[in-house]
Specification:
The chain is mainly α. It has one domain: Up-down Bundle (de novo design (two linked rop proteins)), CATH 1.20.1440. Helices cover about 70% and strands about 0% of the residues. Helix 2 runs antiparallel to helix 4, helix 5 runs antiparallel to helix 6 and helix 6 packs antiparallel against helix 7. The longest helix is centred in the N-terminal third of the chain and has 31 residues. The protein is globular, with a radius of gyration of 19 Å. The termini are far apart. Belongs to the VKOR family. InterPro entries: VKOR, VKOR_Actinobacteria, VKOR_sf. It is a multi-pass membrane protein. This is Membrane protein.
Length: about 210
């Protein structure tokens, strides 16, 4: 039987931030994962419609700057040879499953949480790359993609915070305390910066030409 890094006495669990506790973090993963999964699913359906009809106008083609169709037709939208949203369908499905397992009382070994951390970190790097490509190469935004960005930021930060709190990622006591107290601030700052970058890059989409 493998030793679980989360198998702490209830008193220790209660001392952790709410989103670092098993049930709180499980609910968080289910909610953020579900929103991102739905957005990915819509993108898959829209992409299939484009395959069937190249002239199809997607549901989020609002103007020259916010156009899912433009983004979907770019080479960046199929980095591995198939539409990127398929990665979201699989990846966020796994996230939801982990969250549901935690809500059901499951506890995972440290090596498993290391794998989760690697997975969300790679996903975050992929999202950063997609953000840069949308803003500076494709020159168009995808509404549903931005929903995924908005879910991925807190998912990455709170997963990292959870793993620091449980010792999966080694850290000193001051670092653990800082992470416990300030992760929500980091989430807000990154979301605001991301939104600001979009508005500054495409002012015409928000303030008119």
């Amino acid at each position: 039987m493998s030793k679980s890094d989360t198998a702490a006495p209830p008193s220790d669990e209660q001392q952790l931030p709410r989103l670092a506790r098993a049930r709180g973090f499980g609910l968080f993963l289910v909610l953020t994962g579900a929103v991102a999964w739905i957005a990915s699913g819509i993108l898959v359906l829209e992409r299939i419609a484009l395959y069937k009809n190249p002239d199809y106008v997607t549901s989020c083609d609002f103007n020259p700057w916010v156009s899912c169709g433009t983004v979907m037709k770019s080479s960046q939208a199929a980095l591995l040879g198939f539409p990127n949203p398929f990665l979201g369908i699989v990846g966020f499905g796994i996230v939801i499953t982990i969250g549901m397992a935690l809500l059901a009382g499951a506890r995972f070994a440290r090596w498993y949480w290391v794998g989760v951390q690697v997975g969300v970190s790679l996903a975050m790097l992929f999202i950063i790359w997609l953000w840069s490509q949308a803003l500076y190469e494709i020159n168009a935004l995808c509404l549903y993609c931005m929903v995924v960005w908005a879910m991925m930021i807190p998912m990455f930060l709170y997963t990292t915070a959870r793993n620091i709190a449980h010792g999966v990622i080694p850290a000193s006591v001051p670092v653990r305390k800082a992470v416990a107290e300030w992760t929500w601030v980091a989430v807000i700052v990154l979301l605001v910066l991301t939104a600001a970058s979009v508005v500054l890059r495409f002012p015409g989409a928000f303030f008119g030409a």
